[in-house]
Structures are given as structure tokens and as C-alpha cells.
Amino acid sequence: MSDDAVSAEAEVSTKRSAALEHAWNWFRYHAEQRLKVFQFFIAITGVIATGLGAGLGQGLNFPVLVVAIFGMPLTVSFYRLDRRVSALIKIGEVAMRAEEMRLSINLGDDSIRICEGAENPEGKSSGTYSDAFRVIFFSAGVMYFATACYALYRISISE
Length: 159
What we know:
Number of helices: 4
Distance between the termini: 92 Å
């Protein structure tokens, strides 16, 4: 093999490594952002739920109603943000999957196809972060709706 061919092959290898690193950095950044946003949602929901419970205990029905109504679109907003960040994560996975495929072919080693293996390990159906997050967002929305209805009911019987 000539020096030019070796140099060209090394350049391609360097570019492939840079592509894989870029895809990984994209994936990692958005995955971390997704978890941070979700953790913030959980913290905010916990604080609001505590306030709603305390407000109901003190008979502050109208403020509870207002806060519970505010909580419903807040939950929808966080859910939509989560869907967007999840889509950005998938973009990184697609890029990593392509680079892993090339690496696997070059090395003759299928075990390097990590993204492919993680998609559905051993053919088993498994839950995902999206599934768990969806249940939590739905539960929070139902909690806000039920609290708003209960506060409205208490307001209506007190008059």
C-alpha cells in the first residue's frame, strides 16, 4: 500500500472518529437535558402538590382552583418539551447507529452495534424512559384536574 493510500485511509478513519464523537456528544447533551428538565418538572410538581394539599386543608379553595388549573397546561408544556428533546436524542442515535455499523464492518465485530442492541435487547419488550415519563405526565395532569374539580366542588357547596 502506498504512503498516499495509508494517509488517505488514516484521514478517513480520523473523520469517522470525529463523526462518532460528534454524534455521541449530541446524544449525551440532549439526554442530560431531558433528565434535567424532567427532574425540574418533578420538583415543581411536588412543590405545587404540597401547596395544593395545604391549601385544601386550610379551606383556600379558590387559590387551589387557580393553581390546579395553571398546573394542567404546565404539565402539557413539559410533556411537549420532553417529546422535542426525545426527538433530538433519536437524531443522535441514528447518527451513532450509522457510525457503529461502519465500525462493525471495518472491525468484523457485530458486538460494537450498541445502539442496535439497546433498541430491543434479546427481542424482549421493555419499558422506556418515554413510557415512564408519559405515565408521570399523565398522572400529574389527572392530579391537577381532579384537584381543580374538587376545589370547584368545595366552592359550589360553600355558597
